[in-house]
Amino acid sequence: MSNPTPKQILETLLPYLRVAAGYARQLQPLIRALPAKDGDNFFAEALTDADLSIQTLVEVALLGTFPNIRFYGEEHEQSGNTKYFRSIELGEKGDYLVTLDPIDGTKFYMDGHNNYQIILTVLNSDEFEAVLAISPALNTYYYALRGEGTFTGSLEDDLNACVPVKLDSSEPIILLGWGMSQYKPLLQKYYDVIDVGNDYSLETQIPNHNGILSGCICGAVTRSAKFIDGAALAFLAQEAGCIVTTHDGSSPPPLNACENYSRPGLLVAATESVHRHLLEAAKTLKKA
Length: 288
Fold this sequence. Notes:
It is a single chain. This protein is α+β, with helices and mostly antiparallel strands and 288 residues long. It has two domains: 6-164, Fructose-1,6-Bisphosphatase, subunit A, domain 1 (Fructose-1,6-Bisphosphatase, Chain A, domain 1, 2-Layer Sandwich); 173-287, D-Maltodextrin-Binding Protein, domain 2 (3-Layer(aba) Sandwich). Helices cover 28% and strands 24% of the residues. It has a seven-stranded mixed beta sheet, sandwiched between helices. The protein has a five-stranded mixed beta sheet with strand order 11-10-12-16-14, with helices on both faces. A two-stranded antiparallel sheet has the order 1-2. It starts with 5 loop residues before the first helix and ends with a helix. The relative contact order is 0.12.
């Protein structure tokens, strides 16, 4: 298949990702951390066997099925397959780039929590075309296609068997990403606030950013949004009906206007009132 659609890419890779999810579940209690990789927070410090093995599985599936596709994996520098892909960069319109975060939430994974994910995306030159985020420990996944909404199902379900995500009600909880602790005192009068950098606990699990889809949180603030994880999860939220903007309230820039595979920091809100509070906090901090 020389020019697969974003949905065809997801459909083709889903069986392999089911295998990857089973592998991740099986290894979680046994996993041994490999030497640390560079990063500015403890969530980025641990590289595990699972990261490399899951990426290799997806790379093999892609090279065997769509050999001319572009692919960027989080562990591309360590992978022996990177050199076989046509490119790791964004292409022109319609020349899709597939990306993979093999274990999003490596720290969660290594500490035995169930809120880690496997995130696969299909990127066009300007915007996400598709995102698939699997929660192996929960046996569920979310996916979204551009302009078609966000859907969820059990891992055994094919894409067409999934059901639309409905944002009915959310807990009054805001999740602050790494480095966003300055928002906490400004938002505490309205919400319970979880500051990932300071509130993370080995014993008590905290929500991840997809908690906005299940109603566990009503908003999130990120310092930056990598294409492979933060921006991908924001796309899922946006397709589900959430409000997603930069910290100044503007729309996220086109992907091809961004650098280092990352969008700027984002505000993600389940409702207009939550977004208004997040934006007020951002403006207050900018003036300070």
